[in-house]
Amino acid sequence: MELDLVSHGAVKPVPGAEPDWGRCRVIARTHGRTFYFASQLLPPTRRRAIHAAYAFCRVADDIVDRAPATGTEAAARALDAWAAELEAPNHPIAVAFAAARTHYGVSVQPARDLLAGVRMDLAPRRYATWDDLWVYCYRVAGTVGLIAAPILGCHDDAALPRAVDLGVAMQLTNILRDVAEDARMGRLYLPLTDLAAFGCDPEAVLAGRPNGAFADLIAFEIARARDLYESARAGVPALSPAGRLTTLASSHLYGKILNRIEEQDYDVFGSRAYVPTQRKLRAMPTVAAAFLRLYLPSPSRVRP
Question: Quick check: 7 pLDDT over 60?
Answer without folding.
Answer: no
